[in-house]
Design goal:
alpha/beta; Rossmann fold; binds S-adenosylmethionine; two-stranded antiparallel sheet; about 250 residues; globular; 9 helices
Amino acid sequence: MKNAPEADFLNMWTRIRRSGLQNELLIRAAKPERQRAAKGAEVVTATDVRLTAIDATAGFGEDAFLLAAAGYDVTMYERNPAVAAVLRDALSCAAAAEAAETAGRLKFGGAESGFRDVIARMHLVESDSTAAMQAMVTQVSRETSSDGDAGNEPKASADDSTMRIDVIYLDPMFPDAGKSALSKKKLQFIKEQQVSAADEEALLQAALALRPRKIIIKRPLKGPFLCGVTPGYSIKGKLIRYDCIVL
Ligand SMILES: C[S@@+](CC[C@H](N)C(=O)[O-])C[C@H]1O[C@@H](n2cnc3c(N)ncnc32)[C@H](O)[C@@H]1O
């Protein structure tokens, strides 16, 4: 696509190999609460436990890549067809890259994960995440009530521990483009696609209704809470902040 920036996951892979995944603020925010509670536990990944995440505002998938590198199986929603096309290309390039073979393997707290494994954990859905999450809530409540009608135990509810999504990640457009962690080229590209975050309220409400274990919201360091909802805690960097709502 003309003038579209590339999403280069191999570059990101090199970066996190150098700096360490645990130094990424998002990964610290995504640490499961049981691990946060266990003092000294540094490991976020657990390949024996399948962690699931929804990235409801995928963009170029950079944050989703970090979550996948930490062991999360990430469903990425991107509603803008042009942005989704860039992300789809980047994923297929990464999956096919011969260079991936030589990209080495990483050890995160004993859990070993290769570049290709990370890419395989990223699933792109080109659609609106608000509508998708609302549909999931409807589906779960329909299954619950139809099982109840039949006199059986309900199969699933949004609070069912085996069904619960671990993380829903929200990164709507930054109010102040100058403070975005995205590169200027990427941010400019997104703006050119006229993506707006006017429906932030609906997005957050849909995420809350799905009852994940945690909602993580990326904000500018001094920006207001999304829709005024106070998080349980925040992980702060120099320019950005991750607000965590634990449910
Ligand atoms: C700031 S960017 C996200 C950047 C991303 N975190 C990354 O690492 O590349 C926001 C993106 O979310 C998308 N978006 C906003 N609301 C959405 C929704 N309800 N469903 C799907 N995509 C949405 C926009 O199209 C835009 O591409």
